[in-house]
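Customer ticket, subject: "Can you confirm the structure for Phytoene dehydrogenase-related protein?"

Message body: Hello, I'm evaluating your service for our small team and ran a test protein. I'd like someone to confirm that this is what the system normally returns, since I don't have a reference to compare against.
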Amino acid sequence: MTTRRTAVVVGSGPNGLSAALHLAQQGVHVTVLEAHSTVGGGTRSDELTVPGLVHDVCSAIHPFGVASPYLASLPLAEHGLTWRWAEVDLAHPLDDGSAGVLAGDAAATGAGLGEDARTWERLFGPLQRSFPAVADDVLGPLVRVPSHPLRLAQFGLRAAPPASVLARSFRTPQARALFLGCAAHLFQPLTRPLSSAVGVMLIAAGHRSGWPVAEGGSRSISTAMASLLEELGGEIVLNHQVRTAADLPNTDVTMFDTSPRAVADIVGDRLSQRRRHRYRSFRFGPAAHKVDFAVRGGVPWTAEAAHRAGTVHLGGAGASVVAAEAAIAAGRMPDHPFVLVGQQYLADPTRSVGDVHPIYAYAHVPHGLATDATEAVVAEIERFAPGFRGRVVAQHVSSPADLEAYNPNYVGGDIVGGANTVGQLVGRPAVALDPYSTGVPGMFLCSASTPPGAGVHGMCGFRAAQRAMAYLSRG
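Agent reply: Thanks for trying us out. I re-ran your input and got the following:
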């Protein structure tokens, strides 16, 4: 009689749950160990301000969630996950009251960008059409043989240049700001090679599938995944902190949905000296300073499109966004930081209480910033929505230190799992043929510190679990 294989997953973020689900689908008995009292990692929601108001604690908008090849393969709708879309995916207001607007496909978005209509469609139309075919290649390690080399080359030609260079393709300030605001999700200087990559991916995914939210909050994603895992026979143990190898049960494979440093702390001398050094020296990037608001009547935006947008990027003209991202990477707090505002209630009214709505906002700030950046967030919203302060009923602040205390993977407030430098985009978390293997037999890293990086797509966990299954098949 064959003994059933077992696996332990440390951490229940979307990558940990994806790893657990893939292993369970292959007949492995999986136990997930979660230090928190609820599952979710970066996909949790809570009442942070006013009773009944649903705020997303971490991730909020999910263009990669709906576009993920692995998540799309799962019957998550049967376990309660429903995607909802605002009328407009994204608006990037400018000081003159106009805005760059991401709404619909490349042609529809381009039509709102005046003389940049043809350029926008030329750059992003082909990627929109080919995104389903290349998503598996794009959402994976950069160093590997692609499944669709010619289509991936289309993506690469747009992703390789510095974002500041690609932005010169546009003549209007609205188009430049719209693109550079998306590129700023990299949390790195936009003058560096490959700094276009994240922006190009977000725009292509948005044109294909939109930027949706999960009905009931981002927690609905992890709740659905956990429900499916339990249906497949997996177990989830909450309030179980893993600090050392002694906290791990005996098992055939162990998956770590943690930072590389945490793996080095837990596994210790079982790692090779070289790998241990690489994990401990893994670089983390700039941080987020998050403020959740309860706002009566919503935000009084000057730009009309922002009233209908699920996501609003603040930072003004493209050049100002470039300057702000350079400042935070150098450890300086900019006068006008890039701020992301989420208005999830526009797609999902169940999150509001009467005319009081949850508003999600965070500023890009230097790594580990110790000073309070709340006023900078409020001032940037007020800049594009005069009268905002007077509508705030309550607020909840999460500094970089608070974010790390809540989720240890957010080292120094870095919410993207590690600095997106050129070196770490190519070799994340270490330069290796298998970026998911720790080098210790049966132990794999599956967090956002592995390819393809941050985003609620589950692909890091899925790919790591594929490596784990290959290991088990050899055993």
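A couple of notes from the result: The chain has 17 helices and 16 strands. The mean pLDDT is 94. Feel free to reply with more questions.
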